Amino acid sequence: MDRLRAFEVFVTVVARGSFVRAAEAMDTSPANITRYVSDLEAHLGTRLLNRSSRKLSLTESGVAFYERTRLILDEVAEVEALASATALRPRGRLRINAPLSFGIVHLAPLWPRFIRLYPDVELDVVLADRVVDIVEEGFDLAIRISRGGSTTHVARKLATSRNIVCASPGYLLQHPAPKVPADLIHHACLGYTYSQTADDWHFVGPDGAASSVKVRFGMQTNNGDTARAAAIAGAGVIWQPTFLIGEDVRAGRLVELMPGYRMPDIDILAVYPSRRHLSAKVRVMVDFLAQSFAGTAAWEGGAAALHG
């Protein structure tokens, strides 16, 4: 039995939810898929999958074996990709998706240096705040701003950004500053359409206790810079990541509110479909971005001045 192939078959069956769909994904017959899984179970001396006419489910042994097998396959893919990247010179078109504001402010200044380092790579950068399907839409790599990582693709963390609640000095002259999250119900807030929590704003207090408040939006937008501009003009209370508004806070255009109450941090991730057969152009770009954002991000340096 080709053990590595059997591992791949088993993981694909679990991921796809059926022998037929696994066979389609691996370009083979359902009979071959069934044989690999049966041989693997026989070799291990335990049942990994419960089979029924409607669905497959993992046994207790199957759950543990699946998690470990995925790690093994990832490690093998990492070694293969490293060898491939070492042997091949990065070249060709590299399609990247990134959020609009982050792409303009923090990524655009990096591209000239990357081009100088890798002149045979042609960059095709598409900026959009919506979450694209990188496989369906033909992207090699996406930069994501996320609280929960990626559940469907490989993700490498590049940096972290705090989320902070702010308002302009002009707004605060007209409205008393909120002291605790519950005070926000008395304020006009500015919402970000793509936020996972919508009008439920979540906080962790000075005592470590979690709380949330349902705010009232005076305005919503699908672009962070639009919300930022409205907040600076005095339209209401905003929460945004420090990579977008950290400099405004340092310059006094916005004032951080309720500094004792923290919103969950967000991660900046490089997301790509798979570690297996990772092209040299994607690998060098991910490494380049990780190196560029290594250490304390510049936007956090600006925000840190708020707390002395």
Automatic annotation (TrEMBL):
It holds the Pfam family HTH_1. Keywords: DNA-binding, Transcription, Transcription regulation. GO terms for biological process: DNA-templated transcription. PROSITE patterns: HTH_LYSR (PS50931). The keyword Transcription regulation applies. One of its GO terms (molecular function) is sequence-specific DNA binding. InterPro entries: LysR-type_TF_proteobact-type, LysR_HTH_N, LysR_subst-bd, WH-like_DNA-bd_sf, WH_DNA-bd_sf. Residues 1-59 form the HTH lysR-type domain. Signal peptide: none annotated. Belongs to the LysR transcriptional regulatory family. This is LysR family transcriptional regulator. It comes from Pigmentiphaga aceris.
